[in-house]
Design brief:
The chain is α/β, with parallel strands linked by helices. The chain has one domain: Rossmann fold, CATH 3.40.50. About 40% of the residues lie in helices and about 15% in strands. The protein contains eight helices and seven strands. Helix 3 packs parallel to helix 5 and helix 5 runs parallel beside helix 6. The longest helix has 29 residues. It is globular and about 55 Å long. The mean pLDDT is about 95.
């Protein structure tokens, strides 16, 4: 089981304060890694870092601000001397201000270009920025593991029928930006894996399915019925997969997309 140990390794996790981000940090920490808890709120990052079982520090990191990424890397190197793992987890999903209008606004014909561009900036360019700045440090050292978090919607198109309530009303549409950006992350992973293979840096994708998080009962039912395992994911269902990809248990994997979706993409 030493293959799954991350003892003495240092992991940078972007979007650490999100629902899955906290579980990513917890899993890596329990496996022995020292964690750089990275998000937009320094106080929140430092507070969460104190709760982790391994040595951890908080750092402000905005994936659209290259200076903040460089500063977070410098903070990690000053404290630990090296970085071994990068989890590109930070991402945004569309949020519409008015529930009454979100079905109309999320329809592709009406979808605002500004929301499309914002998703590209965070979900794609943000991954590029972190990989270029932090991954290059790994390549100089000759060793590292990058895990890019994508989605089942980077593999298959959204099933818009699951967003209809019990009365048959389309509550909203899964809009185009999230699937497009997550598909880009999967392709970018393959580029990086090929580019940095001879530098000792492995790059893989983890594609999770939908996570149950206080959604409407009708949506949870629709999603669960569409999934072979018959349920949405729990937030901690991805911890084992992440530790596997981060460490030596997956040492002969690069450029791969590990799909953990309850079977969603089999149908």
């Amino acid at each position: 089981m030493n293959l799954f140990s991350l003892k003495d390794r240092v992991a940078v996790v972007t979007g650490s304060l999100g629902l899955l981000g906290k579980h990513h940090c917890q899993a890596l920490s329990e496996a022995g890694a020292n964690i750089i808890v990275c998000d937009l709120n320094l106080e929140g990052c430092e507070g969460f870092a104190e709760q982790l079982p391994s040595d951890a520090i908080g750092a402000v990191l905005n994936v659209t601000d290259r200076n903040s990424i460089g500063a977070a890397l410098d903070k990690a190197l000053t404290r630990f001397g090296h970085v071994d793992i990068l989890v590109n987890n930070a991402a945004i999903n569309d949020m519409f201000e008015s529930p009454e209008l979100q079905a109309e606004q999320s329809a592709f014909e009406n979808y605002p270009f500004e929301m499309w561009q914002r998703s590209l900036d965070v979900n794609v360019s943000g991954v590029f920025n972190c990989a270029q700045i932090i991954g290059a440090e790994m390549a100089r050292k000759g060793k590292g593991s990058i895990v890019n978090i994508a989605s089942t919607y980077g593999i298959v198109g959204p099933d818009q029928s699951i967003y209809r309530d019990d009365e048959g009303r389309q509550a909203f549409y899964k809009s185009p930006a999230y699937p497009a950006t997550k598909g880009a992350v999967i392709s970018f992973t393959k580029f990086l894996a090929a580019y940095w293979g001879n530098a000792g840096v492995r790059v893989n994708t983890l594609s999770p399915g939908g996570v149950e998080n206080n959604q409407d009962d009708w949506f949870v039912k629709n999603y669960s019925q569409r999934t072979p395992l018959g349920r949405m994911a729990a937030p901690n269902d991805y911890q084992g997969a992440l530790v596997f990809l981060a460490g030596d248990a997956s040492r002969y994997m690069t450029g791969a997309n590990l799909v953990v979706d309850g079977g969603w993409t089999t149908w």
